UniProtKB/TrEMBL annotation:
This is DUF4350 domain-containing protein. The chain crosses the membrane at residues 317-337. Keywords: Membrane, Transmembrane, Transmembrane helix.
């Protein structure tokens, strides 16, 4: 492993506060409802509006001019990304295969046309924070009168639901990057140190940590608490091979998402730190991919088929297939109704205009239309009486 770069990057934060605040409020403030979405680490789909989602952070990257998309497995499509933002949905260590895939992607990615090495950035955020408790705390004062009890109950339940995801806490080591310890009591960070702390008032932020992520000593600390425990660390990989152009890839390791998830990004000081992260990846447009997966993601040598189904394949897609089957049955019935009758052709006889019986039938229909039997019988008797 190459020693980290001694030059720590420090750039001014992105100035997108007004737009992000409006977006976050639209996501988080409900119309008097007592239930919220709490899915963790989702930028797209239903979880995008979750207090633990990452759609607001994704919008920050988009506002900086980068291309942003989401992906759910380690496959060739993910390997083409310039930046991977990874919020594992559980606290367990990455699987050996997953960490090896990410290490190879960081250190050995190259352009397939020029065979030159490529700069990559991996942003890895630990699963040791849940924004639900913070949300219910901040909404207690504005709770509707009829829902204050429900809000208080939600606040009491939130801490017991755990910070580490459905699987619970899990210790372990991830490659040569960091160790995962059993989460302690979540503590609010009252003081920040390190290059990224400049201009950030920790007393006004909502940053918390439980000292779950312990970076390797090779990583450079970019942000730490008052006791020096790392909150954001960097590992730089520099390639100076004879056959490769010089390149630098970076791992950004973050303790948790207490300043990156949707709900925390309502806070102005948190947005400053998130802006440091956005600025770190550079100004030129990059392909930023949010990996939405567990610590043991699926690894595949091929991408799933993304092309829309055509022809008979549509019949296998629910509910389109059920609708198409009914339309097909209706079409068969219509075709049979319009189907020509085959056989020996013959000319139909035209009705004779001099057939007196047809006049009698026509008169009978007219009399039947009156729906008055006595009246119709009277007209018939009158006809025969006058003819005499």
């Amino acid at each position: 492993m190459t020693p980290p770069s001694s030059n720590v990057r420090s750039r001014p934060p992105a100035t997108t506060a007004a737009l992000l605040l409006a977006s976050a409020l639209l996501l988080l403030v409900g119309c008097g409802q007592k239930d919220i979405r709490t899915e963790y680490g989702s930028r797209s789909g239903y979880g995008a509006s979750s207090v633990n989602g990452t759609s607001v952070l994704g919008r920050m990257f988009e506002n900086a001019g980068h291309r942003v998309r989401s992906w759910r497995l380690m496959s060739p499509s993910l390997s083409k990304a310039d930046v991977i933002v990874y919020f594992p949905t559980e606290s367990g260590p990455l699987s050996p295969d997953a960490s090896a895939w990410l290490y190879d992607w960081l250190c050995y990615s190259y352009d397939e046309d020029t065979y030159q090495s490529e700069d990559k950035i991996l942003i890895l955020v630990g699963r040791a924070y849940d924004a639900e408790e913070m949300y219910w705390k901040q909404t207690q004062a504005s709770a509707p009168t009829g829902l204050q009890g429900a809000y208080a109950g939600k606040l009491a339940q939130a801490p017991r639901q755990g910070l580490t995801g459905p699987a619970g806490p899990s210790k372990g080591t991830v490659d040569e990057w960091y160790d995962i310890a059993t989460p302690g009591t979540a503590t609010k960070v009252k003081k920040l140190t390190g290059p990224w702390a400049r201009g950030v008032d920790a007393s006004k932020s909502t940053i918390e940590h439980s000292k779950t992520i312990w970076p390797n000593d090779d990583l450079t600390v970019l942000l730490a608490d008052g006791d020096g425990h790392p909150l954001v660390s960097e590992q730089a990989y520099v390639e100076d091979g004879d056959d490769w152009d010089a390149s630098e890839s970076n791992l950004i390791l973050i303790e948790n998402g207490s300043f990156l998830l949707n709900a925390p990004l309502v806070n102005h000081e948190n947005r400053k730190l998130a802006g440091r992260l956005v600025d770190f990846i550079g100004e030129s447009p990059k392909d930023v991919v949010f990996l939405e997966a567990s610590p043991t993601p699926t690894i595949s040598d091929s991408d799933p088929n993304q092309s829309p189904p055509t022809g008979l394949e549509l019949f296998r897609v629910w509910p389109i297939g059920a609708v198409l089957a009914q339309l097909a049955a209706l079409g068969v019935v219509f075709a049979l109704a319009q189907f020509p009758i085959f056989g020996v052709p013959r000319r139909l006889e035209r009705p004779a205009l001099t057939d007196f019986s047809k006049h009698v039938g026509a008169l009978a229909k007219l009399l039947a239309g009156t729906r008055d039997r006595a009246y119709a019988s009277g007209l018939v008797r009158k006809y025969f009486t006058e003819r005499k």
